[in-house]
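Hi V.,

You were right to ask for the full record rather than a summary. Here it is.
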Amino acid sequence: MADTVDVLFDQAIEQYKAGTDPGELIPVFKEICDRAPKSSAAWACLAWLYLLTDKPNAALKAAQKAVKLNPQDPQGRVNLAVAMLEAGKPGVREHVEIASRVMAAVAELRTEVMDSIADGLSRKPDWPSLERVQQWLS
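Predicted structure:
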């Protein structure tokens, strides 16, 4: 029997946390997105993996889908802002401001996003776009 999408997602997140190379996880998250196209979390994760592997245009498309599916998810907004910076697209401020408002309202989400940013900077040190977004959110 095939794994459910939720099980696949949880396993992939655990692999990521265990240090699996982001490039190896992209096909897994692509499959999850294909099987659950309305999962904003899956699209946000796929965008993050693309960002970590220097694929800003693919990240931009995935992040746009994540934000379209869940406009109030600050992680999706952060991923979109970073992807826009990496791809040289305008309109970054709006996404950072929305993420900031949601994070101010929900402390748990603020912690999650700031932890995610710290994780990104540990995996990809000296990441100017992410450092900029981190500074804006601080």
